[in-house]
Every structure is written in structure tokens, then in C-alpha cells.
Amino acid sequence: MKIYVGLDEARNVSALSTFATEFTKIELENEAVETLTDLDGFYISGDKLMYSKELSDSKKLARKELEDKKKAEEMLENLKTKELLDNLSDENAVLVMALFPAWKTKTKYKVGDRVRYEDNLYKTIQEHDSQDNWTPDQVPALFEKLAKGDE
């Protein structure tokens, strides 16, 4: 089967056809034709490239469901990791210091949150919203230093 495409100025596909026209002058190789069936709603029937809105909608729904499932699995992994880190003793937390988030400004920290800052691990001892000049190493009223990276 031969498939012809037309491209717009941005080189996006603007037209498809099973025959050459003034709008579809580029003939695709066989491998490219098979790739077109990966596009939403296109399928090959005999020697024709066909389009079905129902197929397009079902492919979009299946792709969205797969993306949603992947996002949910990532969120679950992040929650498991966070729960594990939250339940570590300070001594064990130091051993896996690299897994804790880096300290950031404009962040709400709760009592017990642990963060990395300049190769040190700190634990929040007072709830606060971080500010540029309230770094963990400069404000002992907000953070307790748990370990230095080279200790």
C-alpha cells in the first residue's frame, strides 16, 4: 500500500491520502505506513488506510488510563519512600541522608521534617515557612544538626 502525506510550514502532517494529490505529494516508506497505524484512530484494512473516531477515542482513553496508572504507581512509591524515611530514627536517617530532600526557601516545614543542606542533615524543631536568610546552618532555633556528611 502507498500512503502520501502533506506537510504544513511547520512540517506537521496536514493531509493523508492513499494517492498523490497536490496536497499529498510525499510518498511514505512501508515502515512509515505501519507507524501511522499507531496514530489515534488509524488502521489498515486491505490496502487502505482507514480512520475510525471510535478507535481514536478508545486509544486515547486507553493511553490516559495507562498514564493515570503510572502516575498513581509513582505517587504510591513516593508515599512508601516518604513513610519509610519519616519512620527512621535520626541515627538511621543519617545513613541514608542522600534520600532526604534538599532544603528550599519558601517551603513550609513541620516539626520533625528532615532536610539536607550543604552536606549536613538537619531536623526541623520548630514549624516555620523557610526564608532565604533562615538556612539550617544559621538558625539553630529552627533546625537541629543531625550529622555532617563527612562524619
Description:
- With 151 residues, the chain is of the alpha+beta class.
- Helix content is 31%, strand content 25%.
- It has 3 helices and 10 strands, in the order E-E-E-H-E-E-H-H-E-E-E-E-E.
- The strands form 4 sheets. The chain has a 3-stranded antiparallel β-sheet with strand order 2-1-3, with no helix packed on it. A 3-stranded antiparallel β-sheet has the order 7-8-10. Strands 4-5 form a two-stranded antiparallel sheet.
Which secondary structure elements does this structure contain, and how are they paired or packed?
Elements: E1 4-7, E2 13-17, E3 26-27, H1 30-36, E4 42-45, E5 48-51, H2 53-86, H3 90-95, E6 108-109, E7 114-117, E8 120-124, E9 128-129, E10 143-148
Antiparallel strand pairs: 1-2, 1-3, 4-5, 6-9, 7-8, 8-10
Quick synopsis:
This protein is an alpha+beta fold and 151 residues long. The protein has helices at residues 30-36, 53-86, 90-95, and strands at 4-7, 13-17, 26-27, 42-45, 48-51, 108-109, 114-117, 120-124, 128-129, 143-148.
Order of helices and strands: EEEHEEHHEEEEE
Q: So what's the overall shape?
A: elongated
List the uncertain runs. Answer: none
Can you count the beta strands? Answer: 10
Major sheet attributes: 3 strands, antiparallel
Number of helical runs?
A: 3
- Helical content stands at 25-40%
Calculate the terminal CA-CA distance, rounded to whole Å: 69 Å
